[in-house]
Amino acid sequence: MPYLDHPSQPRASRADPLLAPEPYDAGHNIPGKRLYSLRQTQQLADEFTIELIQLARHAFPNLPPTDRDDLVLDGFISGLRDCAVSSHFTLNPPTNLTNALQLCRWYDSHPIHGFLSVN
Q: Where is this region: Disordered (predicted)?
């Protein structure tokens, strides 16, 4: 068994606002609260992403950009209006926001209008 000076700490795959340099307080951090509750309306995925990025920059200005990007990705996935895309991301999480946007653009250009019943 190897000798360890310090217990190993698990590394989270996504940024956690509770581990952010400044404590997350949903009651006082309105942009942070909106980041986690924002839902895509009729806007395109790119427009939704821009809004999330702006909120994240305002809510967590001292967070490293890569961690902030992870928060944006999480907010993006949870806020999507298209259930088919959300389900896809649940089963196959995108590695980054660029990949998520590419798939959303593909879904936007290839809409699924439901299943046809065959008699």
A: 1-26
